Amino acid sequence: RTSWLAKLTNGLRKTGASITTVFTGTRIDDALYEDLESALLMADTGVKATEHLLEDLKRRVKDSKTTDPAAVKGLLVQSLTDLLLPLQKPLLIGQFKPTVIMVAGVNGAGKTTSIGKLTRHLASDGASVLLAAADTFRAAAREQLGVWADRNTVDIISQDGGDPAAVSFDAVSAGKARGRDVVLVDTAGRLPTQLHLMEELKKIKRVIQKTGPLADQAGESGASSIPPHEVLLVIDGNTGQNALNQVKAFDDTLGLTGLIVTKLDGTAKGGVLAAIARERPIPVYFIGVGEKLEDLETFNAQEFAQALLS
Ligand code: GDP
């Protein structure tokens, strides 16, 4: 745990440095709040979250009656933690067999890598995983996913060309037939502005839904049991406000249940999580803190706020 936190702290240094220097002065005055406002905006916290944080912080400062700028930093950690707390939620599997998780994102966000890491995370928790390569266009994408499948020794369902929705359907059916705990569906990278590709994502979701309800542990199969049970978006934390726009666009089109935020091991834009919390609070199930298989961590609001402002 310590090593990943160190990585995160180190990675967020670029984001936090300009914010924390605000608290090195001798007085708590308008200038401090103005500098803080600029620093938060520079860190891609966005106007809404920045306003919210400043208001909340001023109230805390008033209540605490402190006159020490250094103490304000601690209060900002609290404000940020409270804002981020709704994003802290675990990804639950095990209710359905299989739990079907669809994963989307723009090219280069770290989707394939994150699926590899997530596979390992789930497998190390004892879950059996089946991967679906629903990117039927790019052979390289399938090969890359295949490498992660080999590393994790899990099955992969893939197909040259053809319909991504059909591959997804086959994979969910295979997951059921083989009694897997989780089916992870990797979709091709796309931009929210590529409307035909966004339609394709909706189709993949619709076709997965057609595989029908799955009985839960109690043998019930209500509406919530219809797969996909999770629709995740992978975003590159280094792209700041752009990432927020992706969250909004993919959520509007597809309905997201969770996020994976990558590349928090070296970003000046880590404030974007606050913007997400304020503008589209979708749970951050995991954060990526490096390129290796083990560099995936569950998101913790307080640890993140502390790492950012350390
Ligand atoms: P995809 O196009 O979304 O599938 O992206 P990839 O999974 O191929 O990742 C794109 C690049 O980002 C690769 O070089 C990955 O190693 C790198 N990457 C992914 N996640 C992280 C992360 O959390 N930290 C760092 N530093 N690099 C990452």
TrEMBL record:
Main subcellular localisation: membrane
Top-level lineage group: Bacteria
GO molecular function, one term: signal recognition particle binding
Domain SRP54-type proteins GTP-binding: 283-296
EC identifiers of the protein: 3.6.5.4
Alphabetically ordered keywords of this record: Cell membrane, Cytoplasm, GTP-binding, Hydrolase, Membrane, Nucleotide-binding, Receptor
GO biological process: SRP-dependent cotranslational protein targeting to membrane
Membrane topology according to the record: Peripheral membrane protein
Protein family: Belongs to the GTP-binding SRP family. FtsY subfamily.
Record protein name field: Signal recognition particle receptor FtsY
Region of the whole protein represented: 62 to 371 of 371
